[in-house]
Fold:
Amino acid sequence: MNPLVSFLSFCFFPLTLFPSITTAISLPPSPSVSITTTTTLGVTYTSPPPPSPSSTPSLPADRVLSALSSLNIHSVRLPNPDPNLIRSFAFTNTSLFLSIPNTLLPPLAANRSLAARWLYGHVLPFYPRSKISLISVGDDAVSQLSPFLLPAIRNVYLALRDLGIKKISVSTTFSFVNVITTPFPPSSGTFQEPLGELLIKPLLQFLKDTNSSFLVNLYPYNLYRINSEIPLGFALFQEHPFNFRDDLITGVRYWNLFDMMVDAVVSALAVAGHENLPVIVAETGWPSTGGDQTEVDAKLEYAEMYIRGLVGHLRSGVGTPLKKEGVSQAYIFELIDKDNVKKGTRNWGILYANTSKKYHVEFSGCGGIGVGRVLSMRVCLLWWLLVGFFLV
Structure:
């Protein structure tokens, strides 16, 4: 049996039954002054590749900016950053998270001047007018490319410093399922070997030394599909009296699959000696259409539930059981559906291809209610009581 499946089975079977109502909901401390949270919510925008005679025309930059403005989202991840698109974000107060393609890792690792050349094309002409805050050197490059990863990251970091740019962080992005060997229970999370010892440990030291973050793509949808013992509602942030799972090693109670996955990463970081390293969820989401007929849970209704629950949970400020401050940033995958999607391709957009609204979700303010709904409702109720008092 696949080890990931066996660990999932261990976690989710048998189920815990008949919890007391008094322990089913754990209230966080009431906020004293601020209603802001520590998690920055962003979205991924995947711009089309360079046009070819048969390709769909790319969306004009002004429509992308308009779509982001309509959602009140001010952090954007660009997996394949187009210089013209980066330029369009000048003076918009939108924070940009750029990625460097995996194909560039070998030359970047071999030559710092090539790293500088990439920065001259994608960063220097636009920064700081365009608020570039983070660069991911590669995305899930853990196979044949892993020997090039850390040298490429160092060269990009040093090239930035050569240019006098000190406020852009440099890291890389991993996929949860490819680096976490023991995801459940969360307290047993570790990094896969030999990847952990050879690559991730020295990388974590680099991230600590440069005040950067650990980046991870985290999809509860993928783990839910692996194991039928995971309740759908648990993956979708649905709150029911018996919809929780306990980590029997620590006694910690979990109300959603997202938190369990984050804490598995936190545990792996702790085992590696870097438990205080900030964690950024570089991708997360739920598809509204599936790649084939077996993906019966890839549909609009469930995708909206996941996005609403995720936003509410992140806005609540509750964090996770092992990381009270929560993840520092989280990026929803993705902003806009692909146009003319080929058969067998999932759709992840929070907007339709024509940029019209797909979900009834508020991405800012007090609109979202998730696992930390009690705290959110307290804050919102206090706000409206104050407004009502002054209006009267």
Observations:
- Residues 13-36, 366-384 have pLDDT under 50 and may be disordered.
